[in-house]
Amino acid sequence: REPARERAPSGLLDPSLPSSGAICSGCGAELQCRDAEAPGFVPAEKYRELGAGQRGGRCQRCWQLAHHGRALRLRLPPEQHRSVVSAALRRPAPHGRRPLLLYLLDVLELPDPVLPQLPALLGPDAPAAGLLVVGNKVDLLPADSPGYLGRLRQRVAEACERAGLRQAPLVDVRLVSAKTGYGLEGLISRLQRSWRGTGDVYLLGATNSGKSTLFNILLRSDYCKSRAPDVVDRATVSPWPGTTLNLLKFPIINPTHDRMFRRQERLKEEAAKTEDQLSDEERKDLNHLKKQGYLVGEVGRTFQRQKATPVIDFDPDMLSYSVDEDPRQSPEKPEEREEFTYNEVKDARWCFDTPGIVKENCVLNLLTEKEVKLVLPMCAIVPRTFILKPGMVLFLAALGRIDYLEGEKPAWFSVMASNQLPVHISTLSNADAIYEQHAGQGLLKVPMGGEERMKEFPPLVPQDITLKGIGTTEAVADIKLSSAGWVAVTAHEEEKLLLRAYTPKGTALVVREPPLLPYISAIRGARIAGTAAYRTKKPPSLVENLRTTGRR
């Protein structure tokens, strides 16, 4: 059986009502009240209030995601996401300018499973002006050594080479955090330097790569027209995979010499500040971001549109009432939404947010709404290191398991996964019994729901792995347990290890060599007496474009 991963939609249907042409401003789907499990569903009573071509309304699914964090069941095959993206990329280039592809990948997911699919999405006759690859979520990873960002950037570049992207030449690789703002001002400057040689920009990537978060940041930055935030609604952002269902867009600002000069002056002024010079509110926001990630930045705006002072309608009759009467309330006027004028957008270049490509063989596809929130890291990952002898077993929740079968000496296993996922160590002789007894229960936590949940959850399937250690300070490989996280294995030099790793049936297990963070086992405290665990240690955060003198 399929797990009940989303809630059922609610509200009245009315198949007789024709299409209004209204678009959901959160996911891009056409609003309708005919099918509750199709994209863009709105209850009939709300749908009747929509006008033809109206913009700004949200479907029931986006409303629930944005306001209550709940995902509604949606009947949409993964192929439909691909067809929307492919059709967009193969459209004739407006004004004769080929598009720039801005591909966003989650650095935790390297090697990216969707990047090799780009050539098929583009097709042989739809070349792009270039490919700018952005590694997102670097804020979640601690610095395991000096220069680790350069190593991460190289890993991303190597993933691009392996994908064989010939239709779009690689123009740059960037590392950012769409959540904390790290690296985004540099990305915006790089995009603006590509203005003259490219046309529209398409934001591409797998589900949960952070595309809609980046889209919303760019919408309120120097990259878009100054009036765009008043006209274009933000995309719906959720940890639930596949939130964006169609194209969303905003117009890109023309980076004239005057605008770029003013922007550089703003960036220089902000880079000269120390933390002492920030306002109380700015310092509060900064401290919050430091708790969220290891790398923190800020995205400002140079080109702010000055809003006109609102005109107050004065009705003297409203003040003329006797002592025996209550003051009358004037009827509320519906808020008039702003629209772009024809001249503003007739020659515009647009930045498009596209539907995320669904990752196949991904453990997230098997999880419920609550389980997804526990599995996806939402803040800086604190590495958890354990020293295991042969005959010991490591469980990552009930989503992954690694058995240390053969070896001469102990080895170190460093877990990089959501801080909310439990790690449990046992002996090989007890491991099966522990899984049978505690999968679906509190000890292993995810999946959750007891025996009934585990009846529908796929069994763990094994894969044998042989590794040879390269030294006690450097991991030899990462064992990536689908999208649940990974375990970096560090062993004595020339030490041969035989491991058996498990993931749920139908999900991908990857041995990543070389590892993403080879020196991760060094980020640990003292050994906890009587256990296989070391105390955890969280490195400090780094703030971009802020002078280090002053408050620390």
UniProtKB/TrEMBL annotation:
Coiled coil: 257-284
Residues of the NOA1/YqeH-like C-terminal domain: 413-513
Domain of life: Eukaryota
InterPro entries named among the record's database cross-references: GTP-bd (IPR006073), Mito_transl_resp_regulator (IPR052807), NOA1/YqeH-like_C (IPR048422), P-loop_NTPase (IPR027417)
Domain G residues, every copy: 201-252
GO molecular function: GTP binding
Keywords associated with the record: Coiled coil
Xref: PANTHER family: NITRIC OXIDE-ASSOCIATED PROTEIN 1 (PTHR46406:SF1)
The name this protein goes by in its record: NOA1 protein
Source species of the chain: Piaya cayana (Common squirrel cuckoo)
Recorded name of the encoding gene: Noa1
